[in-house]
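ARCHIVE CARD
CATEGORY: sequence design from structure
SOURCE FIELD: tokenized fold
FIELD CONTENT:
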């Protein structure tokens, strides 16, 4: 265990988490990093529940306030009504006592100082923590949160209870399908402590799958190997299937199969994604990974269509959940591993469309939030290396850190090289040549990808201000469908202006812009601004 300053490789998203915990203090960062092992620093193993802070904030002196803060610290939902019921205090008394510790908006609470709440939980004894979980279980049950109540009941039970194991395994599966693998992992580990026999084996399996989709691949492998040795036949078979994806991400293709008989570099990358997508736990993950596979395959023959597919996927995607310790409510979110695949593929398409600035912004943002190092055969590292080359060899911190975590693999390196320089043989001795990437044909759609999907990294203001050297030329057929005013409004919207900006430019009301834009939507068969942009920038066939 060595600090970053001593040269230990740290994944960018782990470094970002430690920076937040240390409030940007480099000395605190080193103290936190020194308490982690290699796998935790590289992001392939979960961080511990309690990280060693150099100096924990002093807990509240008032016993009542300390109890209220402990309830907030161990709660997994941020509903104020649950906190009020658990505390037994009137809402005004509770919120007054926690002033400066929590902030409340629209019936939900959020810590003002996360480190202070962490300090309260770390300093509390077992009896106090157990009592807090029991109070929260009672409160959650009263408001109909049965899954939350089950979790707090299990945590409030000092000894294992076999009857809780089945419910916990089912709850972990629900959380995983919602796109919350971190919570699913925690619940599955709790199920392991309560179950025996086949119940425990199923908990091993769910813990392994949850660890996979949160990107903690070493933890995933460890739990899945336990599932394979559990003696439960169905569980052992399922674990063996999931291990294929884990081993592929960690180790690459098995020896002898590194060069695949595929039609092109995009197809070789798509084959890597397909092996992982087989275990996608939720509809949102399955849909986005199918788009990634389709987009990568299209790179070989129709890069403009590839950019369109990935741009639309990025627009539809709901980013991975980022609030550690608070469960996802509802579904539709991507897991971190699924979003990592999307963002890395998106950065490749932008790179191949000669938009290095947008590609770099997407990759840097993804690396700071997501486990990107091992996805698509280490593609993030290869895209980063190519971006560094385009910057005249200036190596970015993102590329440097990723390269120290994931070994270089030939599939990703060869694919990026082929896509950028216009064609390589598929394999030694083969007469088939990979088709070159038509960068010019994809340039306009790369702009759409940058505008629509890169906003998370660069912000909506940057997208609105995106410069246009020349007036945008809309597809020829649109002049036959749209009026002159609808053409004017549509062109400005496609260039990134808001309805208010369009109104100011054309000296009309915002309502007039909305009317013309709505008519254009109906005539063109699109339902949103994002679909309009992609349709407008699609090259003529």
């Amino acid at each position: 265990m060595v600090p970053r300053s001593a040269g230990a490789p740290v994944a960018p998203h782990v470094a970002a988490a430690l920076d937040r915990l240390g409030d940007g203090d480099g000395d605190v960062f080193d103290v936190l990093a020194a308490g982690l092992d290699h796998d935790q620093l590289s992001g392939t193993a979960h961080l511990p529940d309690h990280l060693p802070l150099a100096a924990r904030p002093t807990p509240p002196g008032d016993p009542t306030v300390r109890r209220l803060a402990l309830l907030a610290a161990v709660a997994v939902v941020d509903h104020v009504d649950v906190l009020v019921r658990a505390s037994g205090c009137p809402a005004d008394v509770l919120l007054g006592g926690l002033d400066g510790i929590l902030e409340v908006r629209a019936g939900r609470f959020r810590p003002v100082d996360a480190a202070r709440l962490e300090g309260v939980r770390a300093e509390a004894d077992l009896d106090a923590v157990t009592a807090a979980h029991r109070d929260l279980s009672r409160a959650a049950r009263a408001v109909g949160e049965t899954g939350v109540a089950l979790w707090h009941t299990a945590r409030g039970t000092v000894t294992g209870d076999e009857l809780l194991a089945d419910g916990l395994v089912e709850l972990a599966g629900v959380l995983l399908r919602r796109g919350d693998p971190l919570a699913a992992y925690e619940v599955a580990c709790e199920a392991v402590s309560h179950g025996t026999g086949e119940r425990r084996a199923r908990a091993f399996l769910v813990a392994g799958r949850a660890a996979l989709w949160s990107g903690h691949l070493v933890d995933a492998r460890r739990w899945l190997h336990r599932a394979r040795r559990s003696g439960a036949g169905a569980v052992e078979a399922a674990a063996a299937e999931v291990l294929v994806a884990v081993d592929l991400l960690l180790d690459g293709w098995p020896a002898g199969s590194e060069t695949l008989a595929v039609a092109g570099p995009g197809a070789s990358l798509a084959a890597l994604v397909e092996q992982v997508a087989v275990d996608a736990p939720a509809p949102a993950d399955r849909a986005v990974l199918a788009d990634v596979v389709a987009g990568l395959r299209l790179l070989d023959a129709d890069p403009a269509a590839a950019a369109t597919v990935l741009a639309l996927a990025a627009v539809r995607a709901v980013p991975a959940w980022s609030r550690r310790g608070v469960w996802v409510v509802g579904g539709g979110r991507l897991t971190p591993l699924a979003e990592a695949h999307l963002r890395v593929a998106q950065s490749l398409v932008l790179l191949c469309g000669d938009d290095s600035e947008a590609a770099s912004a997407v990759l840097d943002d993804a690396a700071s939030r997501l486990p990107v190092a091992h996805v698509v055969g280490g593609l993030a590292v290869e895209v980063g290396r190519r971006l560094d080359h385009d910057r005249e060899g200036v190596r970015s911190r993102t590329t440097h850190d990723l390269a120290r975590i994931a070994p270089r693999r030939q599939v990703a390196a060869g694919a990026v090289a082929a896509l950028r320089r216009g064609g390589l043989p598929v394999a030694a001795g083969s007469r088939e040549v990979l088709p070159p990437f038509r960068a010019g044909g994809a340039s306009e759609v790369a702009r759409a990808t940058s505008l629509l999907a890169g906003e998370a990294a660069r912000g909506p203001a940057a997208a609105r201000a995106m410069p246009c050297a020349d007036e945008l030329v809309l597809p020829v057929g649109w002049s036959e469908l749209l009026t002159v005013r609808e053409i004017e409004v549509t062109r400005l919207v496609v260039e990134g202006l808001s309805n208010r900006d369009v109104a100011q430019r054309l000296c009309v009301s915002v309502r007039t812009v909305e009317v013309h834009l709505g008519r254009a939507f109906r005539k063109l068969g699109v339902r949103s601004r994002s679909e309009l942009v992609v349709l407008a920038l699609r090259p003529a066939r």
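CARD ANNOTATION: The CA atoms of residues 372 and 421 lie 24 Å apart. The chain has 30 helices and two strands.
SHELF: design records, drawer C
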